[in-house]
Structures are given as structure tokens and as C-alpha cells.
């Protein structure tokens, strides 16, 4: 689990953990710059900044990931990176004395810092991005903390996740799973879910989660529509799989009462009998690595393919939308069978090398309190229904003695009374957020307890960097301030937008782009105010929300 630094360096009184990290990173950048073209050794930087080796190395790794720092692979010395060059040229142009001749060539900067080469191209090692690099850097770090209903915690490290997923990839390969194959994962929250997902990505396959409360008919539809190559499940949940199923089935041991099934491959036994798969498949940036289906309530559930290029938007949201900091303890309460839980409760933490927290069983307020206090959660994201449950269980007192720093809510506009209650009782910033399965989260609103007099006016807030959001009138024209219409994303001006088409319904795809491919239509109605805030006014009958 990621915890606050234990180093002895101090920061100015009252500085938060995030501020300390920022100040230390800036000190490192200045120190690297002071060594000029020769570059700086790690020992030099430790001496210049008085940072410990662990802290200096951690911050340098983060700066290198953002391309603010380069390390020469031969000399091992650190230099300023290319991102600083782009930003520096823009700053120089702004502050250049009048009459100075500008440098040749236009100065450009990306709308988001997270459109890195890691997520672009034709040979992206997804399993390395989501697991193996973290195992190499700090294999003992927890990839998963799993809490049972009874309160027992088990931990899965990144090193163990790398080893077990490599073994399970060999199991799946033996069952015929290969590049582009969809594998249905009908599992409760637990270590097996992470291991199965990583194994699928090692093979270049497509992870297809199935929500555990789906009916047998819903499971059967998704298996047939996706042409799933194999299924990973438990003995209890196998009852939802059609009896005439001809696909290979892997079953997690433990449901002895239901029997392993003569034709089923035992998950753990097969895993430990297999040699780790040594190679990792490569994806192109537009290749799908997950397939999400819309709600069971849909007359015809739609398949939404998540491409590798969407990792840039996932990182943008985790770092900026959720304000996830190095010293945060993060808990996404959403089920990983839904898009929000899969994108930001499974993929997002793996991408950033953070700890995923899973808790068994249906939501219970007392269990939620236990989790928040036991793990010292500082950054929590949940559904409005969970906020309502808090309010109903304890309308005056609310949660007690929590370490929360920030609270995010997604799924539907939060009623003003719940915004007021959360600001008053929880006393942390509340982020109300908006997005869809096809887009991820792309808009957010911040309610600050320090400004409790702010009116909750159903505003969805403003777009995240990397998205341009507009209001379109019925003719497909951008509406002026105050004009009502449909919320749309300007695809041409939104580098983090990734949705291309539904996997199984060209007609519904065309409806999303009925004014041309420039605009993606959400199906939600709103108007834009003079401050740039978008105010929700209703949902069209065919709108599909983030679940």
C-alpha cells in the first residue's frame, strides 16, 4: 500500500503531502539544471537537495515518466527532459522583451501531459505498463488489499501478481486463447480477478468482465455476442453459464458444494502446475484490451471496446480528476464489473502502480466505516447511493474519525441536500463528476466545504483538460451561452477522446455521431453559462450513463 513518506526531510509548516512532493520535485529540477550539459548523478542531487536516496529516486522516476527528466542509459546521469523544452519555449515567447526575434518554428504544447509515447504506436507492452514495471521497481508493494466480509485482509504484491499472471497466461494459452480473443471473467472481487486480467493482457487478449449479479440470460447474451473464447468463474457462479456452453471453463477452487465440474480446469492447481509464460504480447494503440457491456436493463446491451490509447485519459482522470497524490490511500468502491470500477478501480491503480482495495459483499455502512478507518483511506470515490446510505444511517453525525482528504461521486447528479450534508459533515472537498462508458469521466464539479454557501445548481462543472465539451442545438450547431441543447464532445479538439464504435450495433454508433464524426453526442441535455459551467437538464431516452 502507498503510504506517506517516512523520510526525515521537512517542509514548511502546514504544507500538505502533495505540496511537499511538489516542492521536492521542483528542487530536483533546479538541481539537475544547475549541473548543465554534464548532467547530475543521483548522489549529486541528494547532496544538493538533502533528500534521502529513496525519496530522490522516487521523484526522479515520476519526473522521468512525465518527460521532465531524462537519464542517460550509459552514464546514468540525469538531464532536463523534452517536456521542459516545449514548456520553456512557450514561456520564453510570453516573457520575451518587445522587439526580440522569436526562435524559429512554432512552439506547441500538448493539452495534457499524459499523451506520452507509452500509450502510442504499434508495440505497446500492456502487461508491463500495468504490472511488470512496478514489480521491477518495488515488487513488495501491494497491488491488491482484499477485505473479506468477516474483516480478514489478504495482500497480493506486484511481484506475486507478475508471477501468478505469467503462469495463468500459460494456462489460458493452453486453452487456445491468443491475440484479440475475448475472455469472459465472471468472478467476485479478489486476487483471481487481477491475475486473470493480467494473464489475458499478457496474451494480447481482451478482458471482458461480467457483473456477478447478472441473470443467466444476461450472461448467455454477452458470451454469445462477444464470441468469448474462454470463461473464468467459480463453482457457484458457473450456474449462470448456459448448459450447452462449449467454451473452455476455468473454475476457482473453493466452492466444493457445487463441485469442480468434470470439464472445468481448476484455477489454482493449473496455475501452479504451469511454467510462467516468458513473453508479453504487444498491442497497437487502437487495439481493444477490454470489452464492457451496457446495463442489463438495455433491450440490446451494447459492447464498448476500450482501446490502449484510453490509458492516457485514465491517467489524466486519476491524477487530475481524482487529485490522486503520492501519499493518498485510494479506494474506489465501484464494482469492477461496471465501467467506472474497471477503468478507475482496476486499470487505473495498476497503471499508476497503486494499491487496489477490494471489499467483498454488498455495500453496508458499517463495513464501509471499517474499511475507511482500517486502511486510513484519504481519497475515496463512490456512487451517490453510498452517500445516501451514509446520510440515512447517521444523518447528523456521519462518518467519524476519518482520514479522508477528498471525496468523489459519480453516476448521477448529486442532489443539493446531499452535497450540503457531505460538505458539512465529512468536511472535505466533494467532487461531483460526469462521464459515460464510451468516454470515461470528462467533466467534474468541485464543492468545497470552505465555501458552503455555494449554491448546488445542478451544474456538471467544466471539462477535464484534453476534452472540449459543447452544447449542440437540434441542427448540430454549437449553442451560444445560455442556449439549451445536447451535451457533445468536440472530437477534433479532444485528444483524450477514444470511442470509435459499438462492437455490435452500427445503428447506435451512427446515432452517437448523427451530426458527423466531429461531435460525439451524449444523449444528455444541458445549457452552458457565462462562466463555462454546463448545467444538466435531463437525460434523453437513449442516453447511457457511466456505471
UniProtKB/TrEMBL annotation:
Is GTP-binding a UniProt keyword of this protein?
no
Q: Which SMART domains match?
A: HTH_ICLR (SM00346)
Q: Which Gene3D superfamilies match?
A: N-terminal domain of ligase-like, Winged helix-like DNA-binding domain superfamily/Winged helix DNA-binding domain
Is Manganese set as a keyword in this record? no
Enumerate the UniProt keywords alphabetically: ATP-binding, Ligase, Nucleotide-binding
Domain HTH iclR-type per the UniProt entry, residue ranges? 19-82
| Family membership | Belongs to the ATP-dependent AMP-binding enzyme family.
| The name this protein goes by in its record | AMP-binding protein
Species name for this entry?
Azospirillum formosense
